Amino acid sequence: xxxxxxxxxxxxxxxxxxxxxxxxxxxxxxxxxxxxxxxxxxxxxxxxxxxxxxxxxxx
Amino acid sequence: xxxxxxxxxxxxxxxxxxxxxxxxxxxxxxxxxxxxxxxxxxxxxxxxxxxxxxxxxxxxxxxxxxxxxxxxxxxxxxxxxxxxxxxxxxxxxxxxxxxxxxxxxxxxxxxxxxxxxxxxxxxxxxxxxxxxxxxxxxxxxxxxxxxxxxxxxxxxxxxxxxxxxxxxxxxxxxxxxxxxxxxxxxxxxxxxxxxxxxxxxxxxxxxxxxxxxxxxxxxxxxxxxxxxxxxxxxxxxxxxxxxxxxxxxxxxxxxxxxxxxxxxxxxxxxxxxxxxxxxxxxxxxxxxxxxxxxxxxxxxxxxxxxxxxxxxxxxxxxxxxxxxxxxxxxxxxxxxxxxxxxxxxxxxxxxxxxxxxxxxxxxxxxxxxxxxxxxxxxxxxxxxxxxxxxxxxxxxxxxxxxxx
Lengths: 59, 404
What we know:
The structure holds two protein chains of two kinds.
Chain A: E1 6-8, E2 20-23, E3 28-31, H1 37-47
Antiparallel strand pairs in A: 1-2, 2-3
Chain B: E1 62-64, E2 67-69, E3 94-97, E4 108-113, E5 120-125, E6 135-140, E7 151-159, E8 176-184, E9 188-196, E10 201-209, E11 216-222, E12 236-246, E13 255-259, E14 281-291, H1 303-311, E15 314-318, E16 322-325, E17 336-340, E18 350-352, E19 358-359, E20 361-363, E21 378-383, E22 390-393, E23 397-401
């Protein structure tokens, strides 16, 4: 069983959030797509009370 | 005694419908229709006999030149397994497997119940049965014993919308046939479980490896499920599991009908433990799943065809030594790059730059906006450096994962 941690995607220049999250350990961009097993795993991770790290400053 | 009667017509007497010859009839030529049922084997035919004028043959077991023909379904595109010949290995050819699900040769993945440690190396091996060039090899590197709910297996998942012609959930649900080549030094009983995801039901079949270090072809009949349909979507239809070890809590009876109410890993108590010796190895090759009750010859596809099918689920793009330049020069004038995938992927994929060398980018379909730049069709990204106008990948590759 892999144990991953996540980081939020940076905001856009307009200050909007983006619909993907970064998985830190294997440098994966995971889109918020229901059929994506990695996204489902991320949702389960959130359900356990975990929180992603804040996004990097995009600039 | 030899006798001879010369006539030009034999016909039944009045009131008699059938003329009976009590022994063999020999003729140099038979002219006229054969009406009614013809029974018995036509053996010993010689001299290149020709049947003409036949408009259909109805049979459940037609073999020509030693090759069985399908009892139903098409002659081509029969094999529902992708990469059953183990040709395509985009991720590499050797994988150290421990406790996590690991994709190995394309479309084939390990399975671990209870975080069971497979303690093995899985490779694309050139040891293969006649007519094949590759196999999937599990080579045990450290011993493990499954306890309780622990399982170790190799699995292959089939997309649901590719199984609609099986007509599951109707009275016409089709029987399928699974064939595969297997080889191991460890003889004994192994289990093959097939899960119908949308029904949370499975069938569990045993097969035996009888001779050590010898390729054996196994054939398993999978009757259709008349009760529950396979959803017509891009989710998981079948999950085919070759068990290699199973803890006692997951021992159940074999079943050639759909049973259970769980997606769990199950095997019978006869399942051997492949991982009880570092000398053990297990090979899988020539996997074919087809509609009908007849096992037909393996449907070999070209490498290009098979690769394209695999790329729907995983895509590997080499970008070694690449540096891309945009035309922006500031944070508000960034460049936008789009990579269009060669085939539409099953789902919006997980994207990775694998070795971490890809930098100065942000996934976005438009500069400065939040719309996703990662879809089943393409990846687009923008540069992120203030005062810089390039993204770069100095080595490695991009990977896109849309596996089931």
